[in-house]
Amino acid sequence: MQVGTSRKRILLITACSVASGMVFSARVWAQSAPAPIIVPSTPDTGAAPILPTGTGTPSAQAVHIAKIRKIYHRLLLKEKNIAAAVSFIDKHQIEAEGTTGSIQSLLKQTPSVNEYQQGLGQAVPVLTIRGVRNSQLAQTLDGIPLQDLLSGAQGSFLNNNVGSPVTLGQLSGTAVYPGVAPPNRQGFATIGGTIAYTLKKPSSTPSAEIFGGYGSFDTSHLGFELNTGAYKNQIDGIRALFRYSQSYTAGYIDNTNARYGDLLLALDKPYNDGLSHLTADVIYNRGQGYVLTSPLPVPELQQNGASFNFPKSDTYNRQNDKYLTVILGDQTYINQNVIASAKVFYIHNESDQTNYLSPAFNPSVYNPAQPYGIDGQALSQFYTASNFGPGNTFYKPGLFTYNPSAVFGQAYAGINATQTDSHTTTIGFTPRVHIFAGVNNITVGGLFAKETSANSQYIYGTDPMPQIAGYNSFALGGGAQRTIYTVFASDKIELLNNKLQIEPGISLTGVYSSNKVPLSYFHSQGYKLANYGKTAEPYLGVSYQLPYNMVAFASYGKGARFAPTTDYSLGSAGSSTSAPKPEIVHAYQAGLRYDTPNLYLKADYFYQKITSAFSFFTNYNTGLSSYINVGAQQFSGVEASGKYRLTPSVVLFGNASYNRARYLNSYSASVTPFQGQFGYAFKGDPVTSAPTWLGNFGVTYNHGPYSARIAGQYTGQQYTTFDYNPTDAAYIPGTAQPASGFPGIQYGLQTAPNKAFLLPGFLTLNVLLKYNVPVHFQSIKVLTLSLNVKNLLGLNYYNHFYNVYQQISGNSPTGFLGTSPYAAAFYGPPRTIFASVSAKF
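User: That's the sequence. What structure does it adopt?
Assistant: Structure tokens below.
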């Protein structure tokens, strides 16, 4: 197709709109010359090809543009008809999430994703996909691993909970691949899915934007974004994007205020006439705030209101988290059959947290009516005067000589207050080559990375807390490292005139990990644990274009997750390392898509079986845990989504999912997605905090200066947990046999799924209204007023709930909901209103 200078020439381009997640035909009508060519982003590489503008003769430009289209259309075809139940999130959905959301709450707009958090912004999000928790998921940013390689998610329990390595304002889009994705899209060590974030990139045209807003709970947001455009409007001119924003919120829960700062610098240097690119991205984000370490007692909430939280003078957890990410990349056009790319990256995260409990409270005394010592229950047996001071349990010259009785006159002063400092550093390399050979679209690549960590912990009765090695150092030194070697190969074979797509692939991974256990109150001397593991993960996907704009697809994939380094322990000989093997998932899915310019429909069935799941037992007398692979879980269900353009201005959308999540055998397990509760799951028990039904629905309106989005989110019923009474630990549940030698209920307050009580479902309604104000200032191109309302109807609901210290009744393994001293819960966010304004220049 030739592009000329005629003002009446019409250009029609049909492309796959991967950013919206709907395979709509994109019709671009050019009314002036030269007509632009739209080349979509390529999620395979994370790079968005930049088009030539402003130079060259029309005929030369036409040849050059046609060349670009031919090259990158082959990459685009790798996304079209993908044999997976992938969901894409575009910039409009990101905008709708607003200042009060997070990169995790954003994902809840897609099928089978459940998320809750205890604050506004990036505050302690808890995420599951098809019931699989966040620590078992992979996250990537432009193809590099974003999750913690040692533990999964953003790190070990209660680390990096405020802020995030990337934020909503720094994203241009996101893709969610539940289950097992093709090897060239699959992240590292996942048995539940891959979340692929795409970073904003600089544009070829200059622009500037200033934005700010204010809303409920003293929430404010202010920032700017600058796009330099291509230098001298040249095809190979360097271009840059600089964005900075900061926000503050008092939080809808008392005493959970937080402050965030986000910075992004993205550079792009095209070369080879715009066919190749050198890129550099720098992200520096900060988050400081107060978080809850566990749900709040329901009696307290009922008495004092939904926003109740203990005063800071009594107890709090404060975190100061920092995230630095640097990515250097190159994408090179070699010839019409080969495109090569590579990225090197550096990630450094720091988490400094203070967990404070006033010396006035004794954590060894458990009082349900005044449960300030909940965090200290598990170790309350140690918190006596006989355990501290010279010659007693924790007295270790050179490490720990702190004696609270001598300092505060109380044996328990400061023993449940900790200062924990930890940081991780990751360096890595991700090479990739795309080869187009006849009917084959081949991708070969790899991940070579190493992450190291270090931490320390101190206890004392005041804040700020002194950090004196050899005096109040509860743990000194130590750390872990993990080195990853992954290679993969995938092919997309196009047969029968591209109607049949077959996508085989395999990923091979070797992992060397070590953990230096520090000198601490549990260990008289430090020691090192090390392990090497490997796995092969095959994949096969098939899609076929049926008549009447329909596409059938099916896939099988195997995924593996390596054990966190903290799960390593001393072997039976006392010197060797005992390490669990990787958890394994076998994931199957099959579905059907209907794709036309005005209507898109998709439905799929999925089945995921996790074997070799991590199981553990902790001996609280020694502080040592042992880990083995004996667990099994099953997740199965259906998902559906659709979008319909009712008029040129009105679009209807929706999705829904049904999930049946069950334990396939009985074993000690982490039974909550946040990993704050450890206990025992029985064969046939439901997986908790995994709603059976999830759904989204809504409508968008765009006409002239007005736009609106009304969206509903439904979260169905979900099973909760309860804690066994310590007296119940004497017997095997459901029998009259003593628990001696039984690997299940071995200590009191152990948590288990509660089959007798389901947390009620709830429906929230969210609204985004926008108006582009006519302006007469030459420098201002667009002035936009926005109003974002979450939970418009003001629904009061719990998004997490469990029964604490419940009595067992009868011989049922989990019993029914009998007498409990209390329940604990998180309230969902109430109605929040946020008004903002932005000016683009």
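The radius of gyration is 28 Å.
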